[in-house]
C-alpha cells in the first residue's frame, strides 16, 4: 500500500463533499463541503486543499447508473475531474465508481438520528468518505491504485499472431 494522504471527492450540482485519509491510507474522514458557484472556485479550493496537505492523489466519485452507463451526473463528475487535473497538472486524479454512496450516506446518517436539515450539511462529506474508503480498501486488496486515472493513457492490447496476419 502506498503511503501518503489522499483526498476523496463527491461532486454534486450544488456542493462538493471532501474527505481525507491518514498518511498510511487506512481510514477516510470527513473534511469539508465546498459550494459550487459555476466559476470553478470549488476546483481551485480543492487544488489548494490538496497542496496544503501534500496529497498524493484525489479520488473523485463517478456516479454511474445502476446498469453501469454514464449519464449526465457521471459526465459532470468526469468534467469536474478533468478541470481539476488541468488546474493541478501534477496531481493525479482518479475516478472511481460511486454507485449508491449518497444513498448509503443518507441511510447511515438517518440511522444515527440526524435530522434532514443536519444531514444536508454533511451528507456530501459522508459520501466522499465512502468513496475514498472504497478506493483505499480496493488498493489494500489489489496492491494497485483504484479507479481510472484522469488524463492517463488507456492500456494498449497486444494483438495475437492471427490478428496481425492479413
Describe this structure in words.
The protein is an alpha/beta fold and 166 residues long. It has one domain (6-149): YqgF/RNase H-like domain (Nucleotidyltransferase, domain 5, 2-Layer Sandwich). It is built from 5 helices and 6 strands; from the N terminus they run βββαβαβααβα. The protein has a 6-stranded mixed beta sheet with strand order 3-2-1-4-5-6, with helices on both faces. The longest helix has 27 residues, at 116-142. Residues 157-166 have low confidence and may be disordered.
- Indicate the low-confidence ranges by residue numbers: 157-166
Helix content: 40-55%
Give the class-level CATH name. Answer: Alpha Beta
Looking at the overall shape, the CATH architecture is 2-Layer Sandwich
Ends distance = 45 Å
CATH fold node name: Nucleotidyltransferase, domain 5
| CA gyration radius, whole angstroms | 17 Å
Spatial strand arrangement across the major sheet = 3-2-1-4-5-6
Class by alpha and beta content: alpha/beta
Describe the biggest sheet?
6 strands, mixed
Our count of helices gives 5
- Overall shape: it is globular
Number of strands: 6
What brief labels describe this structure?
single chain, 166 residues, alpha/beta, Nucleotidyltransferase, domain 5, 5 helices, 6 strands, globular, disordered C terminus
SSE blueprint and pairings:
Layout: E1 6-11, E2 15-21, E3 28-35, H1 41-52, E4 57-62, H2 72-87, E5 93-97, H3 101-111, H4 116-142, E6 148-149, H5 161-164
Parallel strand pairs: 1-4, 4-5
Antiparallel strand pairs: 1-2, 2-3, 5-6
Helix pairs in contact: 1-2, 3-4
Amino acid at each position: 500500500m502506498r503511503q501518503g494522504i489522499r483526498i476523496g471527492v463527491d461532486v454534486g450540482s450544488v456542493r462538493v463533499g471532501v474527505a481525507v485519509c491518514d498518511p498510511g491510507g487506512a481510514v477516510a474522514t470527513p473534511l469539508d463541503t465546498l459550494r459550487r458557484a459555476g466559476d470553478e472556485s470549488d476546483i481551485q479550493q480543492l487544488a489548494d486543499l490538496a497542496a496544503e496537505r501534500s496529497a498524493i492523489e484525489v479520488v473523485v466519485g463517478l456516479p454511474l447508473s445502476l446498469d453501469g452507463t454514464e449519464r449526465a451526473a457521471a459526465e459532470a463528475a468526469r468534467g469536474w475531474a478533468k478541470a481539476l487535473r488541468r488546474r493541478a497538472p501534477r496531481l493525479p486524479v482518479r475516478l472511481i465508481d460511486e454507485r449508491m454512496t449518497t444513498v448509503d450516506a443518507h441511510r447511515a446518517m438517518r440511522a444515527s438520528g440526524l435530522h434532514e436539515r443536519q444531514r444536508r450539511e454533511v451528507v456530501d462529506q459522508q459520501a466522499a468518505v465512502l468513496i475514498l474508503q472504497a478506493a483505499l480498501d480496493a488498493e489494500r486488496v489489489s496492491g494497485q491504485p483504484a479507479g481510472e486515472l484522469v488524463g492517463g493513457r488507456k492500456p494498449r492490447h497486444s494483438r495475437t499472431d492471427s490478428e496481425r496476419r492479413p
